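Why should sequence recovery work at all? Because a backbone constrains its sequence more than one might expect. Tight turns favour small or flexible residues, buried strands favour hydrophobic ones, and helices have their own preferences. The token representation captures these environments compactly. In the example below, the structure is given first.
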């Protein structure tokens, strides 16, 4: 299907979220409502051969006014699928399994040591759980999932930030921007591309589009017609179209991007036939990239 750019109505520069303010007086926190919780429910760190033996910490906070004296136990649990193995993929340093809090120590840390197994296992996980006491409940953030990002992924060489470049579709002036490639959680030949459409205001984990890398790692195929996970006004996705120099768009077909590796340098050559048009049907476009795009890994 061919679309023409002359039918576009306007450029969406971004979304504005309005927040209402509560005019009521805030409730006064009472220590009878004190609880302990992780500062974050998920943490990710990457394997790094140069940093084996480094320490990473997971913060845990006891929320109270006076700073209660309390002892909280925790445990480490291995998931059945893609579970990280203790003393192979990580090492627990806080071996007592106990955290002690008081007025001077409202936040404590569960400490681990990084380890690299040297095998391609995919990302692995383990879960740290806080255990309630007789006097202190745990908050909703009672579990923290730790993900170990596998450095041995076969596409590690091409993952990361790139400086993308093309020409402005309307003026023909050179333009460049930051584009990032992420691995897929399940498919080791699939990648997700953040900000392929040159609009940082719309770049997010729910507006990424995928590509498939060939078995020999020389070509990245990006299909047209992909729909974003994000839905404008809750109903309409961003659609990634192919864009010609004449302003015609295609929602079928694909582009084959050449992956050029020279030592540690990686360059993506998108060719001169297709650029990209990121469009929201009935609203407008959020990004236009003219044919001739390239991207160099930072």
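From this structural description, the recovered sequence reads:
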């Amino acid at each position: 299907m061919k679309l023409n750019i002359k039918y576009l109505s306007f450029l969406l520069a971004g979304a504005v979220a309005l927040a209402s303010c509560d005019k009521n007086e805030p409730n006064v926190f009472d220590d009878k409502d004190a609880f302990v919780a992780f500062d974050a429910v998920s943490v990710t760190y990457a394997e790094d051969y140069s940093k084996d033996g480094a320490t990473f910490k997971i913060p845990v906070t006891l929320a109270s006014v006076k700073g209660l004296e309390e002892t909280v136990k925790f445990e480490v649990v291995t998931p059945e699928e893609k579970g990280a193995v203790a003393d192979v993929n990580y090492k627990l340093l806080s071996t007592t399994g106990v955290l002690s809090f008081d007025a001077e120590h409202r936040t404590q840390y569960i400490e681990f040591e990084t380890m690299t197994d040297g095998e391609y296992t995919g990302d692995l996980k383990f879960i740290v759980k806080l255990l309630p006491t007789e006097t202190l409940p745990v908050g909703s953030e009672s579990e923290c999932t730790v993900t170990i990002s596998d450095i041995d992924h076969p596409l590690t060489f091409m993952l990361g930030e790139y400086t993308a470049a093309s020409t402005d579709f309307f003026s023909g002036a050179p333009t460049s921007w930051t584009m990032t490639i992420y691995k897929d959680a399940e498919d080791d030949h699939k990648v997700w591309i953040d900000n392929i459409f040159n609009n940082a205001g719309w770049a997010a984990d729910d507006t990424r589009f995928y590509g498939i890398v060939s078995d020999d790692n020389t070509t990245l195929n990006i299909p047209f017609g992909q729909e974003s996970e994000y839905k404008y006004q809750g109903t309409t996705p961003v659609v990634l179209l192919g864009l010609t120099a004449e302003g015609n768009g295609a929602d079928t077909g694909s582009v084959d991007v050449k992956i050029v590796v020279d030592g540690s340098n990686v360059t993506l050559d998108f060719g001169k036939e297709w650029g990209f048009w990121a469009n929201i049907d009935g609203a407008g476009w959020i990004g236009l990239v003219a044919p001739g795009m390239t991207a160099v890994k930072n």
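A few observations help interpret the result. DSSP finds no helices and 23 strands in the chain.
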